[in-house]
Amino acid sequence: xxxxxxxxxxxxxxxxAFTFMLAGIGLGFWVGLLPGLGGATxxxxxxxxxxxxxxxxxxxxxLGMHAVVATTGDITSVxxxxxxxxxxxxxxxxxxxxxxKGEAGRALGAVLMSSLIGALVGAVALxxxxxxxxxxxxxxxxxxxxxxxxxxxxxxxxxxxxxxRGMLRGFxxxxxxxxxxxxxxxPQAGIARYTFDSLYLWGGLDLVPVLIGIFAIPExxxxxxxxxxxxxxxxxxxxxxxxxxxxKDTFRHFGLTLRCSLIGTFIGIMPGLGGAVAQWLAYGHATxxxxxxxxxxxxxxxxxxxxxxxxxxxxxxEGGSLIPTVAFGVPGSSAMAILLGGFFVMGLVPGPDxxxxxxxVTFSMVxxxxxxxxxxxxxxxxxxxxxxxxxxxxxxxxxxVILVLVFIGxxxxxxxxxxxxxxxxxxxVGYLMVLSGWPRAPFVLGLVLGKIAExxxxxxxxxxxxxxxxRPIVLVLFAMAVAVILYPLxxxxxxxxxxxxxx
Amino acid sequence: MHSKASLILGVAIxxxxxxxxxxxxxxxxxxxxxxxxxxxxxxxxAMTEVLWCVFGAADRGGAMDFQISAHLPRKVVLVRSxxxxxxxxxxxxxxxxxxxxxxxxxxVLLYLKLQAQEGWGLSVAxxxxxxxxxxxxxxxxxxxxxxxxxxxxxxxxx
Lengths: 503, 158
What we know:
- The structure holds two protein chains of two kinds.
- The N and C termini of chain A lie far apart (about 65 Å).
- Helices cover about 75% and strands about 0% of the residues of chain A.
- Chain A has one domain (about 1-500).
- The model of chain A has no long low-confidence stretch (mean pLDDT about 85).
- In chain A, strand 1 and strand 2 (about 190-195) form a beta hairpin.
- The longest helix of chain A has about 30 residues, at about 360-390.
- By secondary structure, chain A is mainly α.
- Chain B is an all-alpha fold.
- Chain B contains six helices and no strands.
- In chain B, helix 4 (about 100-115) runs antiparallel to helix 5 (about 120-140).
- Classes of the chains: A mainly alpha, B mainly alpha.
- Chains A and B meet through helix 5, helix 9, helix 11, helix 20 and helix 21 of A and helix 1, helix 2, helix 3, helix 4 and helix 5 of B.
């Protein structure tokens, strides 16, 4: 095993494999920065290029590219409030709020360092978990996966706003997101639901245009209203000083970073949940780590913990989602499904052979994730000060450039004008939500989870009738959901009681 | 501002979820299971929010999110919001009528000159830079299909 581990490292460091990995990293770097150009789409576009490559070279290229997309996607989210990737939307909430306070450098330092730690945790999990992961994956059937989705939604809905009223709005936003996810052809009966005879709506609403609209448009309008730069009146010198502070923040909250990395890895392992879910669960956990209601009120207004959680989770999930892909041929996400195609293109069959005959290739994947992330984060740190300086450029000069990126990003997700309209419409919804103090995070998680949750609910009911509700793991997850809902209420009640005692 | 916007959202979601539930009733159970399981609670929650807005105490709940520039007068916020929305809708209109390759440089130049009131030097330089980036990456390198606008198609120029 140890020999294979080192052989895997040596295989990646061969000049040819290393060069392909560098090419992949370069491509992934820009794909992550640009909104709309998704990591999964780019993987699909690059798949034909690996025909002539050896397996180690092919995976160095594909995984090298895919491993850094989430890392650089965070940069766009922090600087402009536009999610670079669907998996980096959660970073917008606190990352961009920090940029507006003149702490772009600190936010970038924190998100990059936590991304690196997340990637390393994911890679270690991949190396360590392959022999023991089988019982875990097999113990999670459709009922358990449906309940896991409900726990995730309960987590973010109950924690993303304050008090009973905030919780009501959180659940309402989450439910609205789930409802929007039902638009399109029903996967079971083939009925066109809420499509109003529009062919565009048959496939459902694409996540990218909705995400870009709901997050980017309100930020752009706010920038236009303020009439200043993103960082406002903060002097330029201060922007560049926080990078090291952001790195230190990662180690100050190392426990949180590690826990969120593990959340990302776990969600990655579970087939079908995907990276867009991991970041929100990690964000929910970060808010739950607040000591009291007052401490939690800082989230969404530029709390570095809200950057560290999603940053770590959306990179650690890569290692996690490789585990079922490599070990059973069951892809953990859409990107992994495309990567699975890469296995067959290069003449490999995922499964037990990857743990015996091709163990060196498997370990080369682990090393690719590690090395690609170290190189990408190192490269980002070189330009961090210049990137942070962008938040001091006059807003009126930035707005047309950001809008061009937003519209192109939205259009290129399906090459359809309907996507741009969807972005504008959900931009309006996002603006109203911000104006009325409704949390946007539960809406997005509801939208992400909608189709997955519906499939698992249908299979659970069709296969087990009502009996699925009595399965032990389902009961445990249900208890977790109830605890998650009650936790902020109890915490608020205790802090009020404490305040009255002091008074 | 909070309560009024919340009331609009609450009513809109109440109407949408109510309509969604009624429409779903006609479908086979496979198709209506999830819309009903979600739609009915969402309708009830939206109704609670609406009733809270109309009859409840002052709104003290805050989301973990940023707030639209609260320090500026409401009228200024409204005018600037509408102006920003107008530019976005105008840009979309230009894309449909003229296509991305023409609309992108036109929008950047007009925004910088009319809204940002920048000088000709910066406006032209930035417009050129954005166009080179757009054309170089999306057209030249990635060969993404950007259809011609309705005007070019109508005039037979496409």
